[in-house]
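Sample entry (332 residues):
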Amino acid sequence: MTSSGSTQEQAAAAAAAGTADGMSVGWSSTARSLALVPPTGVVHTRAVREAAVATWLLSSADDRAQARAEWDETGLALLRCGGLFTAVRIEADLVHAAAGTTESAAVDAYLDAALLGGPVFADRGSGRFYVLVPPSAARRLEWVQGRHPGATCLAPGTYLGVPRPDLVGPVPAYPSWWCVQMDGPGALCDADAVSRLCGYARHRLLMAEARDGGDETPPIDVECVRSTCQRALWDPTPTDRAETADLIRTLEGHIRQLSPLVAALVPRLRRKAIRDTAIVVLRKVDEVLGEREPSVDATRRLHDVGVVARTLVAMFEHPGDLEPCSTRLDFR
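Predicted structure, serialized as tokens:
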């Protein structure tokens, strides 16, 4: 939190001991009464679905009755992260850079597509976005090691204020709202999708900063990527350690440049088989770039980064049929 006077911090001081983050809103008596009886079977109506989501969320309150009262009386209900869910807090400039717009409806549509329908809410006061993810996300290396500047995965025990499930879109009376609603109890964002969005957003932001500073944005040199992969995968194995290390560094650079661009294409890929392949490859990116210590077997490391780089450049060049791009996502 950047401001000691933020509503989030005031809420924490007033309502709970521990770390606080996020916002919440009022809770209608009708929705509250529905939430007392969790629905069984398939959730068919929006009202019942929202009530089911509310019941699930309130399971993370220290005191459910108090949390309901806070939603009614003060518009604030703090829920504890680490049990059923946690959240990735993302600065607004990153989200806007990824979406290519600051227009609320367009940003919401982008988040819905990029995060595969996972729940996201926004806080007017801090200008931040909160993406709900499984609690295991806090143990992932990208968050433990702080690889995504401007984004943080909240630690277990953090108190998070969550909007009531039916509050959608900016509402003047409330400081927080859902950009993408929860689809049902336990329906959280895919942690890989969140990491890809953060990496892509950072890439877009850096490119914009470079343009503003008068720097030329480096293009994707497809032929260079191909030739480096050829040397790593099919030419005779380098015997010189320095050459091997140089090839590995070059391929890692190609992977860092290509992966956010391929990640940006994932929501637009029409063919499920290609989309699933892209997701697997992007998970492999996290693995090969997430190794903290250099591999003892440099030859194996060279092969691994070569395969990932070659697959990324192939998907970048030939993604297949794409959905129309409603926001400025495409670098191609």
